[in-house]
Structure formats: C-alpha cells, structure tokens
C-alpha cells in the first residue's frame, strides 16, 4: 500500500500545514527575543562588564536563602 517514504512525505506535509497557523506567533516571539538580547548586549557594553580591559567587574552577589533538607 504505502511505503515508509510516502508516509514520511504525508507526515511532513501535514506538519507544514498545521505549522502555518503558528508561524506569525513564532516569528513575533523570535523578534522580541532578538530585541531583548540586543538591548542586554548594549547594556553590557555600556557598563564595561563584557570583559573590557579597563572595566572593573562587580563581585558576585550572595543571595541569602534557606536550605531545604529532604527526609528519606
């Protein structure tokens, strides 16, 4: 009846048809992510924390928390 290659092609076509509905949302999300990364990269350059030779790096911050112990 159908071979493996025919079923694979049909599956790819079905996935492509269903993915078309989500494509605008995915591209919008990718654009937002790219803008956020670009803004963060610019902020890192402005503060000198990107590893520039003359910039002083901030020491790591210690956040106080509570240790949770598991009971066996």
Silhouette: flat
How many runs of DSSP E, i.e. beta strands? 0
Q: Write the H/E string, N to C.
A: HH
Helical content class:
55-70%
Strand content of the residues, in percent? under 5%
Give me the secondary-structure category: mainly alpha
Task: Please give the count of helices.
Answer: 2
Task: Give unreliable regions as ranges.
Answer: none
Mean pLDDT: 80
Radius of gyration: 24 Å
End-to-end C-alpha gap: 56 Å
Q: In this structure, how is the largest beta sheet organized?
A: none
What would you say this structure looks like, in words?
- The protein is an all-alpha fold and 72 residues long.
- The protein has 2 helices and no strands.
- The N and C termini lie far apart (56 Å).
- 0% of the residues are buried.
Write the layout of secondary structure elements.
Elements (H helix, E strand, L loop, with lengths): L3 H16 L3 H25 L25
């Amino acid at each position: 009846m159908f071979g493996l290659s025919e079923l694979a092609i049909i599956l790819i076509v079905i996935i492509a048809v269903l993915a078309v509905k989500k494509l605008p949302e995915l591209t919008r999300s990718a654009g937002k992510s790219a803008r956020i990364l670009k803004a963060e990269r610019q902020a890192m350059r402005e503060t000198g924390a990107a590893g520039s030779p003359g910039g002083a790096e901030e020491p790591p911050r210690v956040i106080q928390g509570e240790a949770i112990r598991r009971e066996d």
